[in-house]
Amino acid sequence: MTCVCGLGETIEACCGRYLSGAERPPTAEALMRSRYAAYALGNVDYILESHDPERRDQVDRPSTERWSKEAEWLGLEVVSTEAGGADDAEGTVEFVAKYRLKRIAITHRERALFRKLDGRWYFVDGQEIAGPPVKKEGPKVGRNDPCPCGSGKKHKRCCGASAS
User: Fold this and answer.
1) Those residues with Cβ within 8 angstroms of residue 17's Cβ, 6 or more apart along the chain or in another chain
2) pTM value?
3) Are the CB atoms for 91 and 28 separated by under 8 Å?
4) CATH number for the domain including 98?
5) pLDDT of 162
6) Range of the domain at 78
7) Taking the CB of residue 75, how many other CB atoms lie within 10 A of it?
8) pLDDT tens digit sequence for 85-114
């Protein structure tokens, strides 16, 4: 099975070795990828263990577990990293995580801060980065216009019914 973090390796050769506790992630990016894998695989214990010990009590375990298990995880893209190497004490990873929750596709972009304590990387905090504004393309469809989906119904009785 290919690792869900997106590197293309098997899960055992990639994030699985961190999730099992056999090894520790050597970089902030490796920890970021393994945390994504933990969310995708429902390994909430790993998510909590890899959270900064000073802030761990701020994590709502039931909500985290529910989100982890109810979401359909669609992919991870690491956009950039700053520091966070094996010899660094801190690092940041900017990433885009895609998932679907209750049939709604979500793209989450974040800049995450990681810190190394006693030789082990931890997630400290993240700041969500807003995406570009969504611009509707095409002509505006009025409520009484024919629905653009081709059903033959008025827009207000078809695709526009949920928008009202």
Assistant:
1) 23
2) 0.79
3) yes
4) 3.10.450.50
5) 61
6) 16-128
7) 14
8) 999 999 999 999 999 999 899 999 999 999
Query: Average of pLDDT values for 51-66?
Result: 96
Residue 160 included in any domain: no
Dihedrals phi, psi of 73, to nearest 5 degrees = -85, 125
Q: 6-52 pLDDT, tens per residue? A: 998 899 999 999 999 999 999 999 999 999 999 999 999 999 999 99
Which residue intervals of 8-96 are DSSP H helices? 16-19, 28-41, 44-49, 61-70
C-alpha dihedral sign at 46, 52, 53, 54: negative
Domain count, the chain: 1
Separation CA 73–CA 97 (nearest Å): 8
SS3 51: strand
Place of tokens 């909430």: 44
Has residue 151 been placed in a domain?
Answer: no
